[in-house]
Design brief:
With 229 residues, the protein is an all-alpha fold. The chain has helices at residues 4-13, 18-25, 38-45, 52-59, 64-73, 81-88, 94-103, 111-118, 124-140, 146-150, 153-159, 165-179, 183-197, 202-215, 218-225. The protein has two domains: 1-74, no CATH class; 90-229, Leucine-rich Repeat Variant. The chain is built from 15 helices and no strands. α7 (94-103) runs parallel beside α9, α8 packs antiparallel against α9 and α9 runs parallel beside α12.
Length: 229
């Protein structure tokens, strides 16, 4: 079994400080970061398998790469609310937030509960995590029903007026992904998006109009028309 120390050694071998400037330009925090690409992280974990205890050790390093790799190898069935709440408070960059939601949190049976909890929080990346989770579930979850997504529309509407870039972009991402799931949700998401574009809020107008533009596009409509209803 590979240890956290061995994984850290592999990460340090792939460290590239030249990547940090580009990451910073894309709004990623470069504090406690080695400059390892996600592609290289995926190569490192390939064949390792899942390991909850090693994941916890990697998270505790505080390195951005350590946190992302931890999310790749942790065991979703072993996630607890306390771990999810602890980890979400450790998000200090949008990419760490989104990677952990995509690699791990979306696979937990607690995902919908944490969406409800975190969407009411004020911390930027905690709130972003709620909407990143919705976006990931809309993208990947085969078990989630249309009603599950319709149920979070009031949550999306409430958060759409949040002017913080990392929050409003996640709300937009969530809405667009819901609307790309199937024709039924596409129609519902477009209705909500048009409502948002009429709200007296710069953030909500952007979230709504940007979503409408994509969801009504010929490419999306053509793709959805081929999906079974």
């Amino acid at each position: 079994m590979i240890s956290s120390e061995q994984i850290l050694r592999l990460l340090r071998e792939k460290a590239n400080s030249a990547n940090l400037d580009g990451m910073k330009r894309y709004g990623m925090s470069i504090d406690s970061r080695l400059g390892v690409s996600v592609a290289d992280m995926r190569l490192i974990v390939k064949g390792i398998g899942k390991n909850h205890s090693v994941a916890l050790d990697l998270w505790n390093t505080g390195l951005a790469e350590g946190k992302i790799v931890a999310s790749m190898i942790d065991e979703p069935e072993k996630l607890t609310e306390s771990q999810m709440d602890e980890w979400v408070m450790g998000f200090d960059s949008w990419d760490v937030c989104d990677q952990v939601c995509m690699n791990l949190f979306e696979k937990s049976t607690l995902a919908w509960k944490k969406i409800a909890d975190w969407s009411e929080r004020d911390e930027t990346f905690v709130r972003r995590a709620a909407f990143a989770l919705i976006a990931c579930l809309a993208w990947h979850s085969k078990k989630s029903r249309d009603e599950d997504f319709i149920r979070v529309f009031p949550t999306l509407k409430k958060a759409a007026t949040d002017e913080r870039n990392y929050v409003k972009k996640a709300v937009n991402w969530a809405l667009r992904n819901i609307g790309k799931r199937n024709l039924n949700l596409n129609k519902a998401a477009i209705v909500l998006a048009k409502e948002l574009s009429q709200i007296d809020s710069k953030a909500a107008k952007w979230v709504g109009s940007d979503a409408v533009r994509e969801l009504e596009s010929e490419a999306i409509q053509k793709k959805l028309s081929k999906k079974p209803v």
